[in-house]
Every structure is written in C-alpha cells, then in structure tokens.
Amino acid sequence: MTSDRLTFALEAGLDLPQEGPVLVLGAPGDAVLDALPQDRCTLVQPSFPDHAALARHGWDMAQAPEGPFAAALVFVPRARELAEARIAQACAAAKGGLVIVDGQKTDGVESLLRAVRDRVPLLGQVSKAHGRVFWFAATDAFADWARGPVQLANGMWTAPGSFSADGEDPGTTLLLAALPAKLGATVADLGAGWGALAAGVIPRETIGALHLVEADQAALDCARRNIPDPRVQFHWADATTWTPPALLDAVVMNPPFHTGRAADPGLGQAFIAAAARVLKPSGQLWLVANRHLPYESTLAERFRTVEEVAGDTRFKILHATRPAR
Questions:
Q1: What is the pLDDT of residue 3?
Q2: Which of 75, 134, 171, 238 lies in the 20 to 30 Å Cα band around 23?
Q3: How many domains does the chain have?
Q4: Is the same domain home to 294 and 277?
Q5: What is each CA distance from 198 to 75, 202, 206, 224, 233, in whole angstroms?
Q6: Which residues on neighbouring strands pair with residue 182, listed in sequence order?
Q7: Which residues form the domain of 86?
C-alpha cells in the first residue's frame, strides 16, 4: 500500500481548496486517499488493474480530465516523460488552482522536484516514507512538457511511458522470427502494448481473429492506430484475468516482469497461467522472456510439453503446448 504522505502534507501546511472539483492523475490502486474529499474527486488512471481497484472503492473514474478543476494531484509514475506529461496535464486542467505532486524517491520524484523548482516557486513540500509531496500554483510554464502519442520512423505510434516506446524491442523481433507461418484461426497477444508483436502476427496465414489485451489505455490506443485490421479486437483489460469469447488456438506474448522498478517474475508467471486458461486443449503458447527469468517450472506445471526453440544471450523463446487444466 502506498504511504499516507498526502495526509501528512495536509497536516504540515498543504491547503486543499475547500470548494471545487479535484483531479487525481495516476493514483495506484492501493493509494491511501482518505484525506481527499471523495465526493469532489475525479480520478484518471489509464492502467486497467489500478482503475478497476479504485472504482471498486467508489471513486469517480474518468477516461480523461474534463475541467476546470480547483486542484490537481499527480502521482509520479516510473517513466520521466510520463511524469512530466501528467504535470502539464494537471496545470492545464487546474488553471488558477493548485497542483500537488506525490512520488517515491525510487520513481524519480527528487529530480522532478528540482526540474519544477527551476521553473516555478514551490508553495510547499514535505518528505515522508521514502518519498516527497510538493505543491505549486498551476501555470503555463510546463506547456512544453505536454506529450501525446509519437509516430516512429516506421510509421508506428507509441505513447510516453509505454514499454519500448522508441521502437520494437529485440525480444519481440526474436519472437516474430521464431513464430511459424500458421498459428491457428484465433490468437491473442497478452500484454500487447502498442502492437509491435501483433503487427507482425496479423499478416500470417489462417488468422481469423487476433485479440490484443493490454492494461495501459494509452498504449492500446496506439495499437488501434497501428493495426487497422477488421480481424483485430482490442481489449482494455488485465491480461491475467481476461476471458476470451471462446478458447483460443494460440497465445503469443512478451510479458512484463516489473512492478514499479522491482523485477517481479510472478507477473510473467501469472501471464503464463492466464494463457493456459484461455487456450484450447490443443492450443499453443509462444513467449519471449529475458534469459534469467524463472518461467520454465511454471510452464511445466501448466503445459504438458515445453521447449526452448530459439534465443540468444539475452532472450529465450519458449514454446508450450497442450495446456493442463
């Protein structure tokens, strides 16, 4: 659970406006928000698991800010470009109001504070629980931090903060080279991102339906632009709990393995379990993983046949068939 730095800041001198709506950008699903007036708050969270968790706790959720707001609270994400973009978004949504920033030191809040302080005076700051909260008056001084989707040289669109936003990562390239020409009629890409893997899958023979499952709304919006094919269906969902309309012939994936900055092999293992659950008895899984990740035992538990079919010093391509129910 995230710390209650915001409560501490309010006790230490942060004055939240007594009236008017409050925008909250990027709150984690386990964020401590007890200090906020829930009836006046609108939360924007593009990560589906966090969005769903906050909605279950009764918060008013929105896809995008519709201001104006009296104040805006920004939770600092790991990606610096995304953090800057959220500050610009907060300033635009709360013109004439207050912008509050809450972040962990491990997510770069200290360097972000220095960058903000170089442009505008701070109204206050507090440090607590390996993080910091600081606040300042909304201003146009961060207009150049506003960032949206970017089109790469190859024509593909990516979003700030999305995985491999500067182009197709080497693991995906290696997996595409190992895939057979025929994968079956119904295929899913779990954790599809902005569609780099799916774009290489859709031209293959026999594909009748390709499901792209992605938790990051911004990345999925880019995938919609990158793969305008009627056979593709886009799902803003948690890949570990998503259920297809019918069992699938194949799953391809380059699963994430980080929770924040910490490596978390359990996340990729949950993706493997999800793949076994959504595949037909004759279905097959193709995945790429960093070589050090311990996925083989989970694959052996969930599938009857597992083999490494390609790889290099950094990555391994694993092929698993006949999921065990």
A1: 59
A2: 238
A3: 2
A4: yes
A5: 31, 6, 14, 11, 11
A6: 205
A7: 5-145
Task: Report d(CA 86, CA 297) in Å as an integer.
Answer: 40
Same domain? 93 vs 231: no
Name the amino acid, one letter, at 104.
Answer: Q
First to last CA, the chain: 33
Largest CA distance in the chain: 63
Tell me the pLDDT tens digit for each residue of 13-31: 899 999 999 999 999 999 9
Question: What are 229's two structure tokens?
Answer: 């094919």
- pLDDT tens digit sequence for 91-113: 999 999 999 999 999 999 999 99
Q: Is residue 167 helix, strand or coil? A: coil
Strands ordered across the beta sheet of 98-104: 61-62, 41-44, 22-25, 71-75, 98-104, 131-137, 124-128
The domain boundary, picked from 145, 178, 202, lies at 145
Residues 164 and 240 in one domain: yes
Residue-wise pLDDT tens digits, 282-313: 999 999 999 988 899 999 999 999 999 999 99
Rg of the chain over all Cα atoms, to the nearest angstrom: 21
Per-residue tokens: 23: 């925008």
Per DSSP, which regions of the chain are E strands? 22-25, 41-44, 61-62, 71-75, 98-104, 124-128, 131-137, 150-151, 157-158, 186-190, 209-214, 232-236, 248-253, 258-259, 262-263, 279-290, 303-311, 315-323
Residue 211 Cα distances to 107, 202, 277, angstroms: 32, 10, 15
Looking at the structure, tell me whether residues 78 and 193 fall in a common domain.
Answer: no
At which of 129, 145, 161 does a domain end?
145
Whether residues 95 and 178 fall in one domain? no
Same domain? 194 vs 225: yes
141 shares its domain with 254: no
Is residue 163 very low, low, confident or very high in pLDDT (cuts 50, 70, 90)? confident
